[in-house]
Write a structure and sequence with these properties.
This protein has helices spanning about 1-25, 75-80, 80-90, 185-200, 205-215, 220-245, 250-275, 280-305, 310-374, and strands at about 40-45, 50-55, 70-75, 90-95, 100, 105-110, 120-130, 140-145, 155-160, 165-170, 180. By secondary structure, it is of the alpha+beta class. Strands 1, 2, 3, 6, 7, 9 and 10 form a 7-stranded mixed beta sheet that branches. A 4-stranded antiparallel beta sheet has the order 5-4-8-11. β1 and β2 form a beta hairpin.
Protein backbone atom coordinates (compact mmCIF):
# COMPACT_ATOMS: atom_id res chain seq x y z
CA UNK A 1 0.00 0.00 0.00
CA UNK A 2 2.85 2.36 0.87
CA UNK A 3 4.52 1.59 -2.48
CA UNK A 4 1.23 2.33 -4.30
CA UNK A 5 0.85 5.65 -2.49
CA UNK A 6 4.44 6.53 -3.35
CA UNK A 7 3.82 5.78 -7.05
CA UNK A 8 0.62 7.83 -7.08
CA UNK A 9 2.40 10.73 -5.38
CA UNK A 10 5.17 10.62 -7.98
CA UNK A 11 2.60 10.61 -10.79
CA UNK A 12 0.91 13.63 -9.22
CA UNK A 13 4.23 15.51 -8.92
CA UNK A 14 5.10 14.74 -12.54
CA UNK A 15 1.75 15.98 -13.81
CA UNK A 16 1.98 19.10 -11.65
CA UNK A 17 5.47 19.96 -12.93
CA UNK A 18 4.43 19.48 -16.54
CA UNK A 19 1.29 21.57 -16.00
CA UNK A 20 3.36 24.39 -14.51
CA UNK A 21 5.76 24.18 -17.47
CA UNK A 22 2.85 24.28 -19.91
CA UNK A 23 1.26 27.30 -18.23
CA UNK A 24 4.62 29.09 -18.13
CA UNK A 25 5.17 28.54 -21.82
CA UNK A 26 1.64 29.67 -22.59
CA UNK A 27 2.44 33.01 -20.97
CA UNK A 28 5.29 33.54 -23.40
CA UNK A 29 4.66 35.30 -26.71
CA UNK A 30 3.79 33.10 -29.63
CA UNK A 31 6.89 31.08 -30.49
CA UNK A 32 7.75 32.51 -33.87
CA UNK A 33 11.18 30.98 -33.85
CA UNK A 34 11.91 32.24 -37.34
CA UNK A 35 10.97 35.88 -36.99
CA UNK A 36 14.11 37.97 -36.64
CA UNK A 37 14.71 40.52 -33.87
CA UNK A 38 14.96 44.17 -34.85
CA UNK A 39 18.74 44.42 -34.50
CA UNK A 40 19.74 44.18 -38.16
CA UNK A 41 22.25 46.11 -40.22
CA UNK A 42 24.14 46.34 -43.51
CA UNK A 43 27.67 47.46 -44.31
CA UNK A 44 28.42 48.10 -48.00
CA UNK A 45 32.09 48.62 -48.90
CA UNK A 46 32.40 50.80 -52.02
CA UNK A 47 35.77 52.21 -53.11
CA UNK A 48 37.29 53.90 -50.04
CA UNK A 49 34.10 54.09 -48.07
CA UNK A 50 31.96 51.69 -46.04
CA UNK A 51 28.32 52.73 -45.76
CA UNK A 52 26.36 51.45 -42.76
CA UNK A 53 22.67 51.28 -41.89
CA UNK A 54 21.84 49.66 -38.57
CA UNK A 55 18.92 49.31 -36.15
CA UNK A 56 19.83 49.62 -32.47
CA UNK A 57 17.72 49.00 -29.33
CA UNK A 58 16.89 52.02 -27.18
CA UNK A 59 17.88 50.10 -24.04
CA UNK A 60 21.49 50.10 -25.29
CA UNK A 61 21.68 53.82 -24.44
CA UNK A 62 21.90 54.85 -20.79
CA UNK A 63 20.16 57.91 -19.38
CA UNK A 64 17.89 58.67 -22.37
CA UNK A 65 14.64 57.02 -21.29
CA UNK A 66 13.60 59.70 -18.79
CA UNK A 67 10.23 58.20 -17.84
CA UNK A 68 11.60 54.60 -17.75
CA UNK A 69 8.75 53.25 -19.89
CA UNK A 70 11.05 51.26 -22.19
CA UNK A 71 10.26 53.59 -25.10
CA UNK A 72 11.93 56.69 -26.50
CA UNK A 73 9.51 59.54 -27.18
CA UNK A 74 10.11 62.32 -29.70
CA UNK A 75 10.83 64.71 -26.82
CA UNK A 76 13.36 62.34 -25.25
CA UNK A 77 15.03 61.78 -28.62
CA UNK A 78 15.40 65.50 -29.22
CA UNK A 79 16.63 66.16 -25.67
CA UNK A 80 19.33 63.46 -25.78
CA UNK A 81 20.22 63.46 -29.48
CA UNK A 82 23.83 64.53 -29.00
CA UNK A 83 24.36 61.84 -26.36
CA UNK A 84 22.86 59.24 -28.70
CA UNK A 85 25.09 60.32 -31.58
CA UNK A 86 28.22 60.19 -29.43
CA UNK A 87 27.33 56.75 -28.06
CA UNK A 88 26.86 55.33 -31.56
CA UNK A 89 30.17 56.78 -32.74
CA UNK A 90 32.02 55.22 -29.81
CA UNK A 91 30.16 51.92 -29.99
CA UNK A 92 30.83 51.04 -33.66
CA UNK A 93 34.44 51.08 -34.89
CA UNK A 94 35.93 49.84 -38.18
CA UNK A 95 39.68 49.14 -38.25
CA UNK A 96 41.95 48.71 -41.28
CA UNK A 97 45.66 49.18 -41.97
CA UNK A 98 45.26 52.90 -41.42
CA UNK A 99 43.89 52.54 -37.91
CA UNK A 100 40.48 52.92 -36.32
CA UNK A 101 37.64 54.71 -38.11
CA UNK A 102 34.36 56.08 -36.77
CA UNK A 103 31.08 56.81 -38.51
CA UNK A 104 31.03 60.15 -40.30
CA UNK A 105 27.95 62.09 -41.36
CA UNK A 106 26.00 60.09 -38.80
CA UNK A 107 22.21 60.37 -38.92
CA UNK A 108 19.80 59.00 -36.32
CA UNK A 109 16.08 58.50 -36.67
CA UNK A 110 13.51 56.80 -34.42
CA UNK A 111 11.74 53.71 -35.78
CA UNK A 112 8.09 53.68 -34.53
CA UNK A 113 7.33 50.61 -32.45
CA UNK A 114 3.95 50.07 -34.12
CA UNK A 115 0.98 51.97 -35.48
CA UNK A 116 -0.46 52.46 -31.99
CA UNK A 117 2.73 54.20 -30.78
CA UNK A 118 3.79 56.38 -33.75
CA UNK A 119 5.72 58.81 -31.52
CA UNK A 120 7.48 56.22 -29.35
CA UNK A 121 10.16 53.77 -30.33
CA UNK A 122 12.23 50.85 -29.04
CA UNK A 123 14.68 51.04 -31.95
CA UNK A 124 16.86 53.74 -33.48
CA UNK A 125 18.09 53.61 -37.07
CA UNK A 126 21.64 54.89 -37.56
CA UNK A 127 23.18 55.73 -40.94
CA UNK A 128 26.73 56.80 -41.63
CA UNK A 129 29.97 56.24 -43.54
CA UNK A 130 33.43 54.99 -42.61
CA UNK A 131 36.31 56.62 -44.52
CA UNK A 132 38.81 53.82 -45.30
CA UNK A 133 42.46 54.04 -46.35
CA UNK A 134 43.12 50.49 -47.57
CA UNK A 135 39.77 48.66 -47.95
CA UNK A 136 41.33 45.69 -49.71
CA UNK A 137 43.43 44.58 -46.71
CA UNK A 138 42.34 42.93 -43.48
CA UNK A 139 39.60 44.84 -41.69
CA UNK A 140 37.83 44.35 -38.37
CA UNK A 141 34.44 45.63 -37.21
CA UNK A 142 33.73 46.17 -33.52
CA UNK A 143 30.19 46.58 -32.19
CA UNK A 144 29.38 47.10 -28.52
CA UNK A 145 25.79 48.38 -28.49
CA UNK A 146 23.45 45.77 -27.03
CA UNK A 147 20.15 46.14 -25.24
CA UNK A 148 19.16 44.81 -21.87
CA UNK A 149 16.43 42.45 -23.12
CA UNK A 150 17.17 38.80 -23.85
CA UNK A 151 16.20 39.31 -27.51
CA UNK A 152 18.41 42.41 -27.75
CA UNK A 153 21.69 40.63 -27.04
CA UNK A 154 22.44 39.86 -30.69
CA UNK A 155 23.08 42.02 -33.74
CA UNK A 156 23.14 40.75 -37.34
CA UNK A 157 25.13 42.75 -39.89
CA UNK A 158 25.39 41.77 -43.55
CA UNK A 159 28.63 42.96 -45.17
CA UNK A 160 28.92 43.24 -48.95
CA UNK A 161 31.56 44.45 -51.39
CA UNK A 162 30.05 44.89 -54.87
CA UNK A 163 33.46 45.31 -56.52
CA UNK A 164 34.27 41.61 -56.11
CA UNK A 165 30.82 40.26 -55.22
CA UNK A 166 31.83 39.15 -51.74
CA UNK A 167 29.19 38.94 -49.02
CA UNK A 168 29.40 38.01 -45.35
CA UNK A 169 27.09 37.69 -42.35
CA UNK A 170 28.38 38.88 -38.98
CA UNK A 171 26.65 37.93 -35.73
CA UNK A 172 27.59 40.16 -32.79
CA UNK A 173 26.84 39.50 -29.14
CA UNK A 174 28.29 40.63 -25.79
CA UNK A 175 30.57 37.57 -26.01
CA UNK A 176 31.59 38.29 -29.64
CA UNK A 177 31.96 42.04 -30.15
CA UNK A 178 34.59 41.98 -32.91
CA UNK A 179 34.71 40.19 -36.28
CA UNK A 180 37.14 40.10 -39.18
CA UNK A 181 35.67 41.23 -42.50
CA UNK A 182 35.80 39.13 -45.66
CA UNK A 183 37.15 36.08 -43.88
CA UNK A 184 38.31 32.68 -45.12
CA UNK A 185 36.19 29.70 -46.04
CA UNK A 186 36.89 28.03 -42.69
CA UNK A 187 35.86 31.10 -40.67
CA UNK A 188 32.66 31.28 -42.69
CA UNK A 189 31.91 27.62 -41.98
CA UNK A 190 32.46 28.06 -38.23
CA UNK A 191 30.26 31.16 -38.16
CA UNK A 192 27.32 29.43 -39.82
CA UNK A 193 27.88 26.33 -37.69
CA UNK A 194 27.35 28.45 -34.56
CA UNK A 195 24.38 30.16 -36.15
CA UNK A 196 22.66 26.85 -36.95
CA UNK A 197 23.26 25.51 -33.46
CA UNK A 198 21.92 28.64 -31.79
CA UNK A 199 18.86 28.68 -34.04
CA UNK A 200 17.77 25.11 -33.29
CA UNK A 201 18.52 25.38 -29.55
CA UNK A 202 16.52 28.61 -29.16
CA UNK A 203 13.63 27.54 -31.42
CA UNK A 204 10.84 26.41 -29.06
CA UNK A 205 8.73 24.81 -31.78
CA UNK A 206 11.65 22.80 -33.18
CA UNK A 207 12.57 21.64 -29.68
CA UNK A 208 9.02 20.59 -28.88
CA UNK A 209 8.71 18.58 -32.09
CA UNK A 210 12.06 16.94 -31.37
CA UNK A 211 10.82 16.03 -27.89
CA UNK A 212 7.72 14.41 -29.39
CA UNK A 213 9.91 12.33 -31.70
CA UNK A 214 12.16 11.23 -28.84
CA UNK A 215 9.48 10.18 -26.33
CA UNK A 216 7.86 7.56 -28.55
CA UNK A 217 9.64 4.75 -26.72
CA UNK A 218 11.83 3.74 -29.67
CA UNK A 219 15.11 1.94 -29.29
CA UNK A 220 18.50 3.52 -29.92
CA UNK A 221 18.61 2.49 -33.58
CA UNK A 222 15.25 4.05 -34.38
CA UNK A 223 16.08 7.25 -32.49
CA UNK A 224 19.28 7.66 -34.51
CA UNK A 225 17.34 7.01 -37.72
CA UNK A 226 14.66 9.54 -36.73
CA UNK A 227 17.25 12.23 -36.03
CA UNK A 228 18.98 11.50 -39.34
CA UNK A 229 15.69 11.66 -41.22
CA UNK A 230 14.79 14.91 -39.46
CA UNK A 231 18.13 16.43 -40.48
CA UNK A 232 17.77 15.12 -44.05
CA UNK A 233 14.40 16.84 -44.38
CA UNK A 234 15.89 20.12 -43.17
CA UNK A 235 18.77 19.78 -45.62
CA UNK A 236 16.44 19.11 -48.57
CA UNK A 237 14.26 22.14 -47.81
CA UNK A 238 17.25 24.41 -47.21
CA UNK A 239 18.92 23.27 -50.45
CA UNK A 240 15.76 23.73 -52.54
CA UNK A 241 15.25 27.16 -51.01
CA UNK A 242 18.86 28.33 -51.39
CA UNK A 243 19.49 27.09 -54.93
CA UNK A 244 16.04 26.85 -56.52
CA UNK A 245 14.09 29.58 -54.75
CA UNK A 246 11.54 27.30 -53.06
CA UNK A 247 9.69 29.29 -50.40
CA UNK A 248 6.33 29.73 -48.74
CA UNK A 249 5.11 32.78 -46.81
CA UNK A 250 5.45 32.65 -43.01
CA UNK A 251 1.65 32.92 -42.74
CA UNK A 252 1.55 29.36 -44.10
CA UNK A 253 4.78 27.87 -42.80
CA UNK A 254 4.47 28.98 -39.16
CA UNK A 255 0.96 27.50 -38.56
CA UNK A 256 2.03 24.37 -40.46
CA UNK A 257 4.97 23.88 -38.08
CA UNK A 258 2.62 24.11 -35.10
CA UNK A 259 0.31 21.62 -36.82
CA UNK A 260 3.16 19.10 -37.20
CA UNK A 261 3.69 19.19 -33.43
CA UNK A 262 0.01 18.52 -32.74
CA UNK A 263 -0.24 15.86 -35.44
CA UNK A 264 2.87 13.94 -34.43
CA UNK A 265 1.99 13.99 -30.73
CA UNK A 266 -1.60 12.89 -31.43
CA UNK A 267 -0.36 10.10 -33.66
CA UNK A 268 1.93 8.91 -30.89
CA UNK A 269 -0.95 8.71 -28.41
CA UNK A 270 -3.13 6.84 -30.91
CA UNK A 271 -0.31 4.47 -31.86
CA UNK A 272 0.08 3.37 -28.26
CA UNK A 273 -3.42 1.84 -28.45
CA UNK A 274 -3.26 0.62 -32.07
CA UNK A 275 0.26 -0.78 -32.53
CA UNK A 276 -0.39 -1.75 -36.15
CA UNK A 277 -0.22 1.93 -37.10
CA UNK A 278 3.11 2.51 -35.40
CA UNK A 279 5.51 0.59 -37.61
CA UNK A 280 8.96 2.23 -37.55
CA UNK A 281 9.03 2.97 -41.28
CA UNK A 282 5.63 4.66 -41.17
CA UNK A 283 6.77 6.81 -38.26
CA UNK A 284 10.00 7.71 -40.06
CA UNK A 285 7.99 8.75 -43.13
CA UNK A 286 5.89 11.05 -40.92
CA UNK A 287 9.00 12.54 -39.33
CA UNK A 288 10.50 13.16 -42.78
CA UNK A 289 7.35 14.87 -44.04
CA UNK A 290 7.21 17.11 -40.98
CA UNK A 291 10.91 17.91 -41.22
CA UNK A 292 10.39 19.28 -44.74
CA UNK A 293 7.94 21.79 -43.28
CA UNK A 294 10.31 22.69 -40.43
CA UNK A 295 13.06 23.08 -43.02
CA UNK A 296 11.00 25.71 -44.84
CA UNK A 297 10.85 27.67 -41.60
CA UNK A 298 14.61 27.40 -41.18
CA UNK A 299 15.05 28.42 -44.82
CA UNK A 300 12.99 31.54 -44.17
CA UNK A 301 15.24 32.46 -41.27
CA UNK A 302 18.37 31.74 -43.30
CA UNK A 303 17.00 33.85 -46.15
CA UNK A 304 16.58 36.76 -43.73
CA UNK A 305 20.14 36.30 -42.49
CA UNK A 306 21.63 35.74 -45.92
CA UNK A 307 24.16 33.16 -47.07
CA UNK A 308 27.73 34.08 -47.87
CA UNK A 309 27.61 34.39 -51.66
CA UNK A 310 31.31 33.63 -52.04
CA UNK A 311 31.11 30.47 -49.93
CA UNK A 312 27.52 29.43 -50.60
CA UNK A 313 27.97 25.67 -50.16
CA UNK A 314 30.22 26.20 -47.14
CA UNK A 315 27.63 28.44 -45.49
CA UNK A 316 24.81 25.99 -46.13
CA UNK A 317 26.87 23.01 -44.92
CA UNK A 318 27.82 24.86 -41.74
CA UNK A 319 24.23 25.85 -41.01
CA UNK A 320 23.00 22.29 -41.56
CA UNK A 321 25.73 20.81 -39.40
CA UNK A 322 24.93 23.37 -36.71
CA UNK A 323 21.29 22.24 -36.73
CA UNK A 324 22.39 18.62 -36.41
CA UNK A 325 24.75 19.50 -33.54
CA UNK A 326 21.99 21.32 -31.70
CA UNK A 327 19.64 18.38 -32.13
CA UNK A 328 22.24 15.97 -30.79
CA UNK A 329 22.78 18.12 -27.71
CA UNK A 330 19.06 18.28 -26.96
CA UNK A 331 18.63 14.58 -27.69
CA UNK A 332 21.43 13.68 -25.29
CA UNK A 333 19.77 15.75 -22.57
CA UNK A 334 16.39 14.08 -23.15
CA UNK A 335 17.96 10.61 -23.10
CA UNK A 336 19.73 11.36 -19.81
CA UNK A 337 16.44 12.54 -18.28
CA UNK A 338 14.68 9.41 -19.56
CA UNK A 339 17.39 7.20 -18.06
CA UNK A 340 16.94 8.96 -14.74
CA UNK A 341 13.16 8.46 -14.78
CA UNK A 342 13.53 4.80 -15.68
CA UNK A 343 16.05 4.29 -12.89
CA UNK A 344 13.71 5.88 -10.33
CA UNK A 345 10.30 4.70 -11.53
CA UNK A 346 10.91 1.93 -14.04
CA UNK A 347 9.30 1.45 -17.45
CA UNK A 348 5.85 2.40 -16.14
CA UNK A 349 7.10 5.80 -15.04
CA UNK A 350 8.87 6.33 -18.36
CA UNK A 351 5.70 5.50 -20.30
CA UNK A 352 3.70 7.92 -18.15
CA UNK A 353 6.26 10.66 -18.77
CA UNK A 354 6.08 9.99 -22.53
CA UNK A 355 2.28 10.16 -22.62
CA UNK A 356 2.26 13.34 -20.53
CA UNK A 357 4.85 14.95 -22.81
CA UNK A 358 2.67 14.16 -25.84
CA UNK A 359 -0.36 15.74 -24.16
CA UNK A 360 1.65 18.85 -23.29
CA UNK A 361 2.89 19.04 -26.90
CA UNK A 362 -0.67 18.86 -28.23
CA UNK A 363 -1.69 21.70 -25.92
CA UNK A 364 1.28 23.91 -26.79
CA UNK A 365 1.08 23.19 -30.51
CA UNK A 366 -2.64 23.98 -30.56
CA UNK A 367 -2.07 27.32 -28.80
CA UNK A 368 0.69 28.26 -31.25
CA UNK A 369 -1.43 27.19 -34.22
CA UNK A 370 -4.32 29.41 -33.17
CA UNK A 371 -1.99 32.34 -32.42
CA UNK A 372 -0.23 32.07 -35.75
CA UNK A 373 -3.42 31.72 -37.76
CA UNK A 374 -5.14 34.61 -35.99
Amino acid sequence: MQEMNSTQAWHLRLKTMLLVALLSLCLLPSAHAHLMVAQRGTLNIVDNGAFMVISLPVSAFEGVDDDADGLLSDEEFTRHKQTLLQTVKQGIVLTDAGGSHYLQGLLLSPAPTDETHPQNTQQLVAMGRFQLEQPTVAMQLQMGLFGTGADEQVQYITVSRPADGRRQLLVFSPQAQAHELMTSRWSTFVGYLKLGTEHIVTGLDHLLFLLVVLVTGWGWRHIVLALSVFTLGHAVSLTLSSFYGLSLPPTIVEPAIAATIVGMAAFDLIARHWPLTSTPWFRLALVYGCSLIHGLGLASALDDLGLNDEYLLTSLAGFNLGIESGQLLISLLVVLIAMGIRRLQGDAGLMLAGRTASIVAIGMGSIWFVQRVV
